[in-house]
Amino acid sequence: MLRAADADPGREGISVVIPAFNEEAAIGGQLDEVDLALRQTGRPYEIVVVDDGSRDGTAQQAAARGVRLIQRDRNYGYGAALKAGIAEAKYDWILITDADGTYPSASIPELLEHIPEADMAVGARTGKTVHIPWVRRPAKWLLTLYASALAGQYIPDLNSGMRIMRKSIVESFAHLMPSGFSFTTTITLAMLCNGYRVAYVPIDYFHRLGTSKIRLADFFRFLWLITRLALRFRRGALIRIVGSAVLLLLLFRLLPAQRLLHALGGVRPGVVVAAVLLFVVVHLLGALKWHLMVNEAGAGLGFSSSVRAYFSGLVGSLFLPSVIGGDVVMVAAAWRETRRRAAIVTGSLLNRALDLGGLAILSVAGAVLLGGGLGAGHRKLLHMIAGLTVIGIALFVTSVLLLHPDRLPARLRAHYLKHRDAIDSLRHPRMYALPFALGLVLQFCLLLLHAWIGQGCGVHAGLSAWLLVWPLAKFLSFLPVTLGGIGAREAALAVLLVPFGVEPAAAVAAVLAGAGFRALGSLLGGLFSRLLPATAAVTSVRKAAS
Question: How far apart are CA 42 and CA 160, in angstroms?
Answer without folding.
Answer: 25
